[in-house]
Structures are given as structure tokens and as C-alpha cells.
Write a structure and sequence with these properties.
Order of helices and strands: HEHEEEEEEE
Number of domains: 1
Length: about 150
């Protein structure tokens, strides 16, 4: 686990030091890590997002750690987002609405809202809050949320 997090940090540092002159609106890939859950509970939430244009993106999130829903210590969650961008030069940014599915030992789906800020260097800070419904377990509703830090490349 420590080696994985160290490798992820190295990727961010190498990416940040690269002389990427591509405008932010033309960069179409993002890699993010859920920082709040990682620091407070040791849970790992990694997300990759591909941006199709300034208003839409899709991706996948991998979660590993403690969960409020039984048998959800590891899950894969594909998602799609619609952005209501504040700055066209930055590409997909600002307020967004997300729909996501969740696959683990249980299956679920949910909706989230959030906001993404992006620095001119490509670093990302993102908030996400939402609820989902687990279709197989006795607990029908589960929370979703975190503070993500990442990089657009």
C-alpha cells in the first residue's frame, strides 16, 4: 500500500515537472486520489476521467477500504458527469452532476454533485457529495463523497 501511494505521488511530480504546453481545455485525461478518506481512514479511492468536451466526462473509480455497506471493501464504479463550466479556457471545470454505478459483491447506482477547480498547471481539487442505492444488501442507501486531488494531462 505504501509503495502504491509513493508511486502515485511520483507520477504526479513527474507529470507536473514535464513541459506540457498543451492548453488545459485540450488536455483530456485526469487522474485523481480521494485525499480525505485516505488521510482519515486509510481508504484508497482512485479515479480516472476522460473528458470528451468542456461539458462532459466519463471514467472509473476504484475503491478499497472500510465501507458502511457490508461486503463493499472493494468496488469499481463507472461514472459520467455533466459540467456547467465557469471558464471555457480551462475545459471541464466548475459545478457538475454525476451519475455512477457501483460493482462489488453488491450492485448499486447513485447520483452526486460536486465542484472542480483546476490550476493553470493542471493540478485539480475536487469536492464530491452524493447518495447511492445498493440493490442487494439490507442497507439500501450509501453515502458517497470525498475531496480529490489530481492532475490533468
Amino acid at each position: 500500500m505504501k509503495y502504491f501511494i509513493t508511486a502515485l505521488i511520483c507520477v504526479f511530480v513527474i507529470s507536473a515537472n514535464a513541459q506540457n504546453k498543451t492548453p488545459l481545455a485540450e488536455r483530456k485525461n485526469e487522474l485523481k486520489v480521494g485525499s480525505l478518506q485516505l488521510l482519515l481512514a486509510g481508504n484508497v479511492d482512485l479515479a480516472y476521467e476522460h473528458l470528451t468536451n468542456n461539458n462532459f466526462g466519463y471514467g472509473v473509480s476504484l475503491y478499497s477500504g472500510k465501507s458502511l455497506v457490508p461486503d463493499n471493501e472493494f468496488s469499481i464504479s463507472p461514472f459520467a458527469r455533466v459540467y456547467f463550466g465557469e471558464n471555457e479556457k480551462l475545459g471541464a471545470n466548475g459545478f457538475f452532476v454525476e451519475g455512477a454505478a457501483k460493482f462489488s459483491k453488491n450492485v448499486g447506482a447513485g447520483l452526486s454533485i460536486g465542484k472542480k477547480w483546476i490550476h493553470k498547471t493542471g493540478f485539480i481539487f475536487e469536492t464530491l457529495v452524493g447518495l447511492g442505492r445498493d440493490f442487494k444488501s439490507g442497507q439500501e442507501v450509501y453515502p458517497r463523497g470525498d475531496l480529490f486531488i489530481g492532475y490533468r494531462f
